[in-house]
Design brief:
By secondary structure, this protein is an alpha/beta fold. Helix content is about 25%, strand content about 25%. The strands form six sheets. Strands 1, 4, 5, 6, 8, 9, 10, 11 and 12 form a nine-stranded mixed sheet that branches. Strands 17, 18, 20, 21, 23, 25, 27, 28 and 29 form a nine-stranded mixed sheet that branches. The radius of gyration is 23 Å and the shape is elongated. The termini are far apart.
C-alpha cells in the first residue's frame, strides 16, 4: 500500500518573492515594500499569497525580502508565527544577506531562490511553488500542483486569460491546443491569442511550479551564465520552453470563488489608482472578492483593539457609515462616512465628511475636514477644515493626484503644507 500523501501540497513548499519596492505606488512604498502595503481593512498584500498556500495545504514556506523589509518582516513575525517545526511546518524569512558573496544582494527573482538553495534543500520537499507576494487573489495551488504532475511538465506557469489589448503589459504565453507553451513573450506589442479564443491571451501571473531537483539544476546553471539577468520570466522560463516541457495553467481552473458564477478575481494593485479602486470595490453590495468567506479565509496579524464606535446623533453631527468597511479600534465621532474603507484605529471628529476614502491605520481626521476620493497613509493627521477632492488644482499644490483624480496624502506632504502656509 502506498504511503505517499494524497495531497501534493504536503510534498511542496511555497517560495514567496517579496523583495520589490512597488515604485508605482509612489509615497505609499517610501517606508515599506509593496507586499507589506495594507489592503482590505486589516490585511496586507502578502497575506493573500501566504493564505492561499496555507489553505491549499502547504505548510512549508519561505519569504525572500529585500527593499525596506522591516515592516514586512515584523508583520510576518507577528501574524504568521504559528508554524510548528515539530509538526514539520516552517515559515522562514530570507532577507537579502550576501549569502553567495559580499558584493551582491538578490540580483533577480531566480537569484533569490538560488542564494537559498541550502535552505530549500533542508525542507526535504519534491515541489516548489514560486509566488509573487504582491497580488490580490484566491487560488488553490493544489489544483495547479496536480495538473503539473499529471501533465509531466518541467514547469507549469499560472496564467490569466486577458483581452489581447491588455496583454501587452504582461509576459504572454503562446500555447498549442494541449496547453504546452511554445513561446514566452515579454510584453509583446502583438500578443498571440489563445487556441480556443483568439480575442484573449494567456498572461503570466508570476506563479511557477517545478520539481525541486529540476529547478535546482537550472538555478545552478543560470548562476554560472554571465549573460543572465537571474530572472524567472526573462531567463529560466524561456530556457524550459525551448529545451523542456512548459505547460500553462489557467487561473480560471483553480480560482477560489465565493459563488459559482463569480468572476476569477485577480488584481495587481501596483498603482495608486488600482490600489484605491480595489479597496473601494470592497464596499460594493456583493464584491467580487469575498473577505467574509470562512471556507478560504485570508489570515493576517490581528491587533487586539476594541470594537468600532460611532458617536453623536445630531442632525448635522451624526456618526454614521454607509456602504463602508470600518475596522476595529475606530471612533467615528460625528462624521459622515460613505463608500469608504477605514482601517484599524482611525479616529474622525465632528462635522467631518469622508466619501470614497481609503484610510490606513491610525489616521486622524480633524473637525470640518471634507475628503473625497482620497488615500490616507498610516498615522496621517488631517488638520481641521482641510478640503481635498473638490479642487484638483489646489490639491496638486500639496499632494499627489493621479490622472483619474485619486489623491494620496502622507504626513510629510501635510507637514510641508503647514510650513508653507505658516
Amino acid at each position: 500500500m502506498s504511503t505517499t500523501p494524497h495531497r501534493l501540497s504536503a510534498r511542496a513548499m511555497a517560495f514567496v518573492l517579496a523583495g520589490g519596492r512597488g515604485s508605482r505606488l509612489k509615497e505609499l512604498t517610501n517606508n515599506r515594500a509593496k507586499p507589506a502595503v495594507y489592503f482590505g481593512g486589516k490585511t496586507r498584500i502578502i497575506d493573500f499569497a501566504l493564505s492561499n498556500a496555507l489553505n491549499s495545504g502547504i505548510r512549508k514556506m519561505a519569504i525572500a525580502t529585500q527593499y525596506k523589509a522591516h515592516s514586512l518582516i515584523r508583520h510576518c513575525q507577528r501574524g504568521w508565527n504559528f508554524f510548528r517545526a515539530e509538526r514539520n511546518e516552517y515559515l522562514d524569512i530570507l532577507p537579502a544577506s550576501q549569502r553567495v558573496d559580499e558584493a551582491h544582494w538578490y540580483q533577480g527573482t531566480a537569484d533569490a531562490v538560488y542564494q537559498n538553495i541550502d535552505i530549500v534543500d533542508s525542507y526535504g520537499i519534491d515541489y516548489v511553488v514560486i509566488l509573487a507576494g504582491d497580488h490580490i487573489y484566491k487560488m488553490d495551488y493544489e489544483v495547479m500542483l496536480r495538473e503539473h504532475v499529471d501533465s509531466g511538465a518541467d514547469v507549469t506557469v499560472g496564467c490569466l486569460t486577458v483581452p489581447r489589448a491588455e496583454a501587452t503589459a504582461f509576459g504572454v504565453m503562446d500555447v498549442d491546443k494541449a496547453g504546452q507553451i511554445t513561446r514566452f513573450l515579454e510584453k509583446p506589442s502583438q500578443p498571440p491569442g489563445m487556441p480556443d479564443d483568439p480575442t484573449r491571451a494567456l498572461a503570466s501571473m508570476g506563479i511557477y511550479v517545478f520539481r525541486w531537483d529540476f529547478l535546482r539544476k537550472l538555478l545552478i546553471e543560470d548562476a554560472a551564465n554571465a549573460d543572465s539577468a537571474r530572472d524567472f520570466g526573462g531567463d529560466i522560463i524561456p530556457i524550459v520552453v525551448q529545451h523542456g516541457k512548459a505547460m500553462a495553467h489557467r487561473f480560471d481552473d483553480s480560482c477560489v470563488r465565493h459563488r459559482p458564477d463569480a468572476p476569477a478575481y485577480w488584481r495587481d494593485v501596483g498603482t495608486l489608482d488600482a490600489f484605491w479602486q480595489a479597496n473601494i470595490d470592497l464596499t460594493d453590495f456583493d464584491p467580487d472578492l469575498d473577505l467574509w468567506d470562512t471556507n478560504w479565509p485570508i489570515w493576517t496579524y490581528s491587533e487586539s483593539v476594541p470594537p468600532a464606535k460611532f458617536i453623536h446623533d445630531d442632525p448635522d453631527r451624526r456618526g454614521l457609515a454607509v456602504s463602508s468597511l470600518i475596522s476595529g479600534g475606530c471612533i467615528i465621532s460625528g462624521t459622515e462616512v460613505r463608500n469608504s474603507l477605514v482601517f484599524t484605529g482611525v479616529h474622525t471628529n465632528s462635522f467631518a465628511k469622508l466619501e470614497q476614502v481609503v484610510a490606513l491605520p491610525y489616521a486622524t481626521i480633524a473637525r470640518h475636514a471634507r475628503l473625497t476620493k482620497v488615500v490616507l497613509d498610516r498615522r496621517v493627521q488631517i488638520p481641521q477644515g482641510l478640503v481635498v477632492g473638490e479642487d484638483p488644482q489646489e490639491d496638486l499644490k500639496w499632494f499627489r493626484v493621479t490622472d483619474s483624480g485619486v489623491t494620496l496624502i502622507t504626513q510629510p506632504m501635510l507637514d510641508r503644507r503647514a510650513a508653507a502656509l505658516g
